[in-house]
What does this fold into?
Amino acid sequence: MSHHKSNRVNWFVGPLFVLFFLALFVPFANTIGALAGGAASVAIAVAIGYFEIFHIGISWMVFLALVGGVSTGVIVSFVMRRRKFQSEAQRLGLLQKTSAGVR
It folds into this structure.
């Protein structure tokens, strides 16, 4: 029984560290990226801990959840940052609309 309790606690250790990592070490991290990274990290931890996906041991759960969550958070933050700057530049009239797209 205690094995399952510690397993459930570890479901949220990785995602919590993902939020701290994004806040401290990723200067372009934003809310959407942090939420996506946290959700991905929880999904990975639950998949490993509860469903025993790929027969990966519980000792790898926090590390893999951290790597997956940080990767997702960085990618989503970067993509959303680029879209935000493009929409802001369009609003200010800095980008020109052409028939091929936005320059």
